[in-house]
Amino acid sequence: MRTIGFIGLGMMGTPMAHLLHEAGHRLVVQDVNPATEAAFAAAHADVVRAPDAAAFAACDVVFTMLPNSDIVDAVVDGLASHLPAGACVIDMSSADPHRTRALAARLAARGLGLLDAPVSGGVKKAVAGTLAIMAGGDPALFERQRPLLAVLGQAITYVGPVGAGHALKALNNYVSAAAMIATAEAIHAGAAFGIDAATVVDVINASTGRNNTTENKAHQFMLNGAFNSGFSLALQAKDVGIAAALGPVLGQPMRLAQQVSAYTRDASAELGPAADHTELYRYVV
């Protein structure tokens, strides 16, 4: 049994922390919402609620599942002086890879490690422990922490040096957003031509245009008007923005990414901070 910190008990973080607890580890948890934190502690024996960063002093690993780099930096920088030498932060958030590298350097100066290990698969796979995990950082550190990652994910891939996980997560979400926009436009265009929307999706799923949106989101969250997949449009826009900004810095203009970034950013501004990312379906009309 290890003593593990987990910061960020949102829709993804709660089932992930639950799986670590079920695997027999002692957890120290923290969330910005005290009610969420209290509910998790009440449902799990021997969980410690952290009133401050000092409460993580016994943790050799701390997971973070947070919205963005601003919050990650603030939380982890505040945590660093309290962690034991050799401890590791595993940031599973979606964050800016360049800022991740800077954070890793600050932690290394204190004798601490950092793995960026963002995930893909949504709440359903977080609950099942079958997330795809893309990890960046020192290879030896990754191998030491692989058993913990294996509790949370099924497809665990070491993708390169620190920051590479966050870079690849942003690129993945850009591709996903582009496919969602294209799918939504195709459904509406087909319907305008007189083709039933469900038929458009079904035929695409039997053809070369099938993608994650047509297979796992169109019927389930879009055509029925549910729009409750559990991943916000604001977070999608943030991730696509990271991908679009990454390209030019590396000499890759990524012209389509710039358009998709502007599209998701405008959609998020119009539909509001509570909008699910599947609501892009109604934005394209």
TrEMBL record:
Tagged with keyword DNA repair: no
Domain (3-hydroxyisobutyrate dehydrogenase-like NAD-binding) ranges: 163-283
UniProt xrefs under Pfam families: NAD_binding_11, NAD_binding_2
Active site: 169
Gene3D superfamilies the UniProt entry points to: N-(1-d-carboxylethyl)-l-norvaline Dehydrogenase, domain 2, NAD(P)-binding Rossmann-like Domain
Keyword RNA-binding: no
Positions of the 6-phosphogluconate dehydrogenase NADP-binding domain: 3-160
GO molecular function: NAD binding; NADP binding; oxidoreductase activity, acting on the CH-OH group of donors, NAD or NADP as acceptor
Keywords associated with the record: NAD, Oxidoreductase
Listed PANTHER family: 3-HYDROXYISOBUTYRATE DEHYDROGENASE, MITOCHONDRIAL, 3-HYDROXYISOBUTYRATE DEHYDROGENASE-RELATED
UniProt protein name: 2-hydroxy-3-oxopropionate reductase
